[in-house]
Amino acid sequence: MSWLYLASVIGAGFCMGLVDRRWSLFLFRDARRAVTILVAGFVFFLVWDLVALELGVYSRGESPAMTGIEVAPDLPLEELFFIAFLCYVTGVLHGLFDRVLRREQVRR
């Protein structure tokens, strides 16, 4: 059992949080809206994963860097953190692109 992958995802999420905090791109810009979007995205992708697992589209991969803990058949603990990270990164990137595009419009 290894916690390397889970620690990496959590660490990357923490770093993304620092970027978000510094430039107020998503969660630190409008927390209520961001949490709503994060929850909606998390639920969507979790259901997506569960349906895909049930249909046999993909299955749990083996890696020595993973904990081996499953929260459901073929659904590793790390997947929950990865889904949350994916949604957070998407929100931060959207905030970044929105800021850059607005700045460009102001220049014109």
Shape: elongated
- Rg for CA atoms: 17 Å
Percent helix among the residues? over 70%
Distance between the termini: 55 Å
- What is the H/E order? HHEEH
| Count of DSSP strands | 2
What's the mean pLDDT score?
A: 95
Q: How would a crystallographer describe the biggest sheet?
A: 2 strands, antiparallel
Uncertain runs are none
Strand order of the largest sheet: 1-2
**Total count of domains:** 1
Membrane topology: Multi-pass membrane protein
Keywords: Carotenoid biosynthesis, Isomerase, Membrane, Transmembrane, Transmembrane helix
Protein name: Lycopene cyclase domain-containing protein
Pathway: Carotenoid biosynthesis
Account of the 3D structure:
With 108 residues, the chain is mostly helical. It has one domain. It is built from three helices and two strands. Strands 1-2 form a two-stranded antiparallel ribbon. Helix 1 packs parallel to helix 3. The chain starts with a helix and ends with a helix. The mean pLDDT is 95.
Task: Furnish the topology, listing elements before pairings.
Layout: H1 4-23, H2 31-55, E1 70-72, E2 75-76, H3 77-107
Antiparallel strand pairs: 1-2
Helix pairs in contact: 1-3, 2-3
In short:
The chain crosses the membrane at residues 6-23, 35-60, 80-101. This protein is mainly alpha-helical.
